[in-house]
């Protein structure tokens, strides 16, 4: 009987933990995202949706801008997960590659812009603690992370674009 009771308690504990997590989202990240979405949409409306889309289309014509400038601006300005909404400015065939570039940049930016992805901050802080223990400069680490991150997102964007093109070509 005690074994069945433990299983039942564990089973209900799982759902209680899920409920607590849900409440933390409702009181934490969801209002923040709604405010960010409202602010960004307001800025876009003030500037003019057509002007913003034209600017984004102009810069995303160039592969290097599509997989560096746009994801960098999105991650720094909006943070994770709101940065993915900038994909709306990219042509449909480039959206998977843009997403790959943006999702790959939310960690390397953390050292310089911790607000961009607070969830990844613990990883950077752990590494920087080791660097500090060695007596090395964490600022240099953050800059190196950022630079390597830009290189990686560009490569990933290119590769994902090519893979997506091959997959969609074979499907047709």
From TrEMBL:
TM region(s), chain numbering: 22-44, 64-87, 142-159
Establish whether keyword Nucleotide-binding is in the entry.
no
Q: Which InterPro entries match?
A: PTS_IID_sorb
A GO cellular component entry from the record: membrane
Write out the entry's keywords from A to Z: Membrane, Transmembrane, Transmembrane helix
Query: Pfam families recorded for this chain?
Result: EII-GUT (PF03608)
- Record's superkingdom? Bacteria
> Which GO biological process categories is it annotated with?
phosphoenolpyruvate-dependent sugar phosphotransferase system
Q: Which PANTHER family match?
A: PTS SYSTEM GLUCITOL/SORBITOL-SPECIFIC EIIC COMPONENT, PTS SYSTEM GLUCITOL_SORBITOL-SPECIFIC EIIC COMPONENT
Q: What is this protein called?
A: PTS glucitol/sorbitol transporter subunit IIC
What is the source species?
Faecalicoccus acidiformans
